[in-house]
Pyrroline-5-carboxylate reductase (Halobacteriovorax marinus), 266 residues
Amino acid sequence: MKSLLSFGCGNMARAIIEGLYNKQAELSYTLYTPSQKRAIELAGVVNGVVLETLLEVPKCDYYMLSCKPQQLKELASEIKGKLNPDAVVISILAGSTVATIQDLLGVTKVLRIMPNTPALVGAGVNAFYFSDEVSASEREHLVKLFDSFSKVFVFETEDEIDKITGFSGSGPAYIFEFSRILIQKMVDMGIGADVASEMVKWTVFGASKLQLESNEGPETLRNNVTSKKGVTYEALEVFKSENMQLMVEKAIDAAYNRSKELSKNS
Ligand SMILES: NC(=O)c1ccc[n+]([C@@H]2O[C@H](COP(=O)([O-])OP(=O)(O)OC[C@H]3O[C@@H](n4cnc5c(N)ncnc54)[C@H](OP(=O)(O)O)[C@@H]3O)[C@@H](O)[C@H]2O)c1
């Protein structure tokens, strides 16, 4: 059985580790957090072991960096030189480049992942970028592990990870924001808040499921709901006249620029 040690057990790491555990991945888990609380909680859920200090780091097959990007330097100063040199270091940190991780930790094999929070419900998207040193069999095993509880996309260049961060990483927030606006408007128009919230959740879920299961693209699916001069048509005309496409494109560009900035400064 392969072993994984996670440095940090926050929302994202927990979603990934629980996802792996729920799909009965052949993995043992060692968990570390400075305050211990979240490591102890997660260890209880996934039958893991808590690492109490970083004085010594056990030899594992995979190490997962799961702290915030701004906490990486402090973590690296404590673990540099203590990791199994043959292990693959998996980083879920937004913006921290493979070169930075290699440099700070003195390692070569790195898998940079951009996950997203729907991993919590077994419906995550994980974008992968491997450093050259990760072998074909290691790549295959890691893709298989993460594919068990999410959809994995492997990218060949690191810049693509910065590009997709604003789509799959941030994407759930766009959907939640759109949902919030719809719920608020329903409430303003006199619909009860609970009903509004349930209806929006089911509408978003239903549209996603239809999109996933249909052979048609989003344009056709949209047209199927839109009769000329009908209700949906009127709403979409407002999206067009207010140039919603340009607004979304600008938002994506801003996310990409921030992603590149973080990569540069990390
Ligand atoms: N949330 C998202 O949607 C999302 C999406 C994509 C990528 N990410 C990436 O995922 C990473 C974690 O995000 P999160 O939302 O899970 O953060 P979080 O909930 O704040 O969790 C951070 C974890 O790191 C631990 N930590 C803090 N300092 C540490 C140190 N020096 N050494 C080791 N562990 C340390 C914390 O320990 P304590 O429990 O003791 O405080 C905590 O368990 C970030 O780098 C982020 O860029 C997040």
